[in-house]
Amino acid sequence: MAKYLISFPAAAMDVPDDEFDAVVRDSHAVIEEAKAAGVYVFGGGINEDVPPVLVSADGGVAEGGYPWAPPLNGGFTVLELPTREEALAWASRIATACRCDQELREFGFDPHS
Which SUPFAM superfamilies has this protein been placed in (predicted)? Predict the structure, then answer.
């Protein structure tokens, strides 16, 4: 089975204040369903109150991430599923619950991980 990343950048989550509680409820319900189905691996959002640091190959640490890359923020869910079609179905459920588009990416297989 492959692992899939379902994610969205923070700017995509443009939900009116009066719908936010419903988004939280609905998105948590989908995650609970994924856990019950045994496909949930990990999920969460980037804590934007904690700034990133860039750790170099020589062990040096610098404030900030890659200067050329867009900021990494938003929400992420990792599921382990037997097919891409099932990953698309879960991504659709998450998109509906969050009321925003989701990106779907497949992790490359690493036999040592």
Answer: Dimeric alpha+beta barrel (SSF54909)
